[in-house]
Amino acid sequence: MHSDNPYGSRASVISLDSGWRRRQRQAVKRGIKRKVKLTKGHFIAEYQVPTAVKNAIEPVYAANRTTEFSHMRYTAATCDPDDFTEANGFSLRTKLYNRETELLIAVTSYNEDKTLYARTLHGVMMNIRDICKTKQSTFWRKDAEEGLPNWQKITVALIVDGLDEMDKTVLDILATVGVYQDGIMKKQVDGQDTVAHIFEYTTQLSVDAKPQLVLPQGDDPLNLVPVQIILVIKAKNQKKINSHRWLFNAIGRILEPEVCVLIDAGTKPGHKSIYYLWEAFHNDRHLGGCCGEIHAMLKGGKKLLNPLVAAQNFEYKMSNILDKPLESSFGYVSVLPGAFSAYRYRAIQGRPLEQYFHGDHSLAARLGDKGINGMSIFQKNMFLAEDRILCFELVAKKHEQWTLTYVKPSKAETDVPENAAELIGQRRRWLNGSFAASVYALVNFYKIYQSDHGIIRLFFLHIQALFNAVQLVFTWFSLANLWLTFSIIIDLLPSQGIVIGGNPIIHWINQGLKWIYLVFLALQFVLALGNRPKGERMAYSATLWIYAALALYLLVCSFWLTGLSFKAIPQALSEHKSFIQTFLSPPLGPLMAAMTATFGIYFFASLLYCDPMHMFSSFFQYLLLAPSFINVLNVYAFCNLHDVSWGTKGSDKNEALPSLKSRTAIGADAPIVDDTTNTQEDVDAAFQETVTRALTKIVVKNTREKPTMDDDNKTFRTRLVAAWMLSNAALAIGIENIHGWLDITSPNITGKFIHKWLDEMALKRNAYFSVLLYFTFGLAFVRFLGCLYYWAGLHLSRGFRRLFRLN
Fold this sequence. Notes:
Layout: H1 17-29, E1 32-37, E2 43-48, H2 51-55, H3 59-62, E3 71-77, H4 93-96, E4 103-109, H5 114-132, H6 138-145, E5 154-160, H7 169-177, E6 188-189, E7 192-193, E8 196-203, E9 206-207, E10 213-214, E11 227-234, H8 239-255, E12 259-264, E13 268-269, H9 273-283, E14 287-296, H10 307-330, E15 340-344, H11 351-356, H12 364-367, H13 377-382, H14 386-395, E16 403-414, H15 420-443, H16 455-476, H17 478-495, H18 503-530, H19 537-574, H20 579-584, H21 588-608, H22 613-617, H23 619-639, E17 659-660, E18 672-677, H24 680-694, H25 711-736, H26 751-804
Parallel strand pairs: 4-5, 4-12, 5-11, 6-17, 14-16
Antiparallel strand pairs: 1-18, 2-3, 3-8, 6-7, 8-11, 9-10, 12-15, 13-16, 14-15
Helix pairs in contact: 5-7, 7-24, 10-23, 10-26, 14-15, 15-16, 15-23, 17-18, 17-19, 17-25, 17-26, 18-19, 18-23, 19-21, 19-23, 21-26
């Protein structure tokens, strides 16, 4: 390609932060001086975009009277997001152009690299193209047929949590599409620190994850449509809830969208996935929020070679087949994942957002005891799963009848942890947050009565609350129940006549495996209370392998015993026992029921949804790693309950940005500041370098960060872990010794008495085991009924809309 082509060349690996800071200083030193009037004391200015970016806009879109294609707009917001209002002098282009916003799509990011960021942004832009060109919806089709620019009803907000923390290569991607330029951000305006740097531009360019530039090609119907982008770069890292406050209380308040879609950087929305989310709101006026199906990114199946990835893939799949449809059938999905979900903007106004923003540490001083400074450690953990709080408050909103649902056709993919240390760190936040939020939802269930839900909906919400309470109890006692399941099943081998190398040998093999199980379980508490996962990678990896081997042994025993139970059916029927009585007889009957629940329901539900591949590619790995998910992940999460990862990191690196000082000019009606803007030639020359950097793959070094510990939080942590351990130990010991102690010193004791005593003890233990397995079967069956109901409703509503041509 020719040298004057800004999209032509690629460079080698570059320095990140130092190069970015150098470019800020260079841009300030040269350029054209100009005077800019402050708007109610705020710096708002427009800057011309590179010629190549402006020329990339198709003529059919560029022929308007606005500057949205020729100039980028910058606002130095020196205020809290709650004060970013039109009354205070702030506004956004979409509002200034009097455009209605139907869909506001927000991408929140922290320090994701440009590959992850481009994957998400390009996926969003392709979804917007598909929405604007869809033939499925009268709402969008009508504007297209009348020649109206329906892309003007959609706005994308890119919110970056901290300028210093962000990967600066992302800025090259954003500069390539025209929404950012070096040397424009201001550190201060009249002594007030800039809280957020806001850029606005409407672009038709994109960069995919390869990275490769995506340009409009003639009249190609696959060309991207113009996308209105608002880029908010927060000066300091203030966490995700604060980013959502910029979205809902600043941008949302000005644009007043109908639907807000939330996406985490790194999540790739699938084909028409955002349209399907919007469609759910369009077809249900009582819908307050929804989510799509998130699945693991497998790269064509290559990542399934990693057992951890395969196990997580199975978890994601079964959650989307059993759990989400069940909750959707009740009308209350307990968690709409922040990585890919949507809310009706007016539905979350008021108490839902107020409660949600109590977790924003930047509001701590203003909220006082209601903010995080007044929260207990349990409440702080609750806000680690802040999306669960928002979901509950939305359904329980006073005098409203908002519901939540799951939209199966809407799909998105995301990366999952590929090693034990990363997985443990991720699940700590998930498990502690969801546990605390689940307790919150149950304790505050009475608020449902203040809503306007109908009697039928309230009835099913009560059923769901009961189901969630049972699951919470199961989660609490999962440690003991897993141990009891393991010990009882392997002890059934000799009692059923299965002898390997003689009865004493199989007995001592089982005893040895039990000791190995308990030793590694005790090790988890030692590791969790004193070490970080990344500092003990070998120990955690070894633990996963050990428990996988024990799980394999448990599976072999279970299949063997299940086979025996089927083999015994003809004999039992010949003894005039009913089939039901045979099926319910312990210990093999309940085991067969549990195996049916585990395998039969999973397989049938997956086939019902025409999505069975994970059963063949990931189920076995999940079964092997399932004990580790309880014994390793749960133990680490509870032992680190005190670590809520609040607080901001230092922000002392903004010296590269200039500050502005206003002055009053003679005859001017507002203060003015001196600003520097580049000539078109300099803008185009800098753009060539920017594109070169954007299309270059970079090596990024990950840095470790240690959490801060608080003594009071550790005390609460210790008490809760002690209660959890003791209650699980009490249950395990109680069941193991349910028949009391055998007095071997009694003169009346005989061999026959001992055998009878052991048989009675085994009978009582097996009775508990039967109850446990039937509860497992029952919970799985309820989930299956929910997924069946959702499946039927999904296909009936789709057929109904097609029959009557609704939508």
